[in-house]
């Protein structure tokens, strides 16, 4: 985890608040104290369970939530190509990568023209910014 947010704390405040954290209400009770600390810091940084996000597979089954009427429609094959734009700020790399995988896997290849990633001023320690920096 390469961020500007410190992971070390001199107080036991995080350990005391850990049991009440929504992060661990349904999972994570079996994590050791160091892993809990990292997971809680990621939760505080991202606002969601970044620790668990890093452990989800890139290619996973996603339910089809479209209304039944849309599922049964047939579409022309000669539709125009699309550009998909992902805008992010200080997003976990795992979330961006899973989104890209989903877009590629769920979009017919002849329709997908490009995927554009827009970093909306992430901090310099952002995982995504570091991973996508080209030389």
UniProtKB/TrEMBL annotation:
Gene3D superfamilies: Spore Coat Polysaccharide Biosynthesis Protein SpsA, Chain A (3.90.550.10). The keyword Disulfide bond applies. GO terms for biological process: protein O-linked glycosylation. GO terms for molecular function: polypeptide N-acetylgalactosaminyltransferase activity. It comes from the Eukaryota. Keywords: Disulfide bond. GO terms for cellular component: Golgi apparatus. InterPro entries: Glyco_trans_2-like, Nucleotide-diphossugar_trans. Residues 83-127 form the Glycosyltransferase 2-like domain. It holds the Pfam family Glycos_transf_2. This is Glycosyltransferase 2-like domain-containing protein. It comes from Hemibagrus guttatus. The lineage of its organism: Eukaryota, Metazoa, Chordata, Craniata, Vertebrata.
């Amino acid at each position: 985890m390469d961020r500007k947010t410190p992971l070390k704390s001199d107080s036991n405040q995080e350990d005391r608040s850990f049991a009440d954290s929504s992060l661990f209400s349904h999972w994570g009770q079996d994590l050791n104290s160091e892993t809990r600390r990292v997971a809680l810091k990621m939760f505080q940084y991202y606002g969601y369970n970044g620790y668990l996000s890093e452990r989800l597979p890139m290619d996973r089954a996603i339910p089809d939530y479209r209304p039944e009427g849309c599922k049964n429609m047939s579409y022309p094959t000669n539709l125009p190509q699309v550009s998909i734009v992902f805008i992010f700020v200080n997003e976990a790399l795992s979330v961006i990568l899973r989104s890209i995988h989903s877009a590629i896997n769920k979009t017919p290849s002849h329709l997908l023209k490009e995927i554009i990633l827009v970093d909306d001023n992430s901090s310099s320690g952002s995982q995504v910014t570091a991973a996508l920096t080209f030389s």
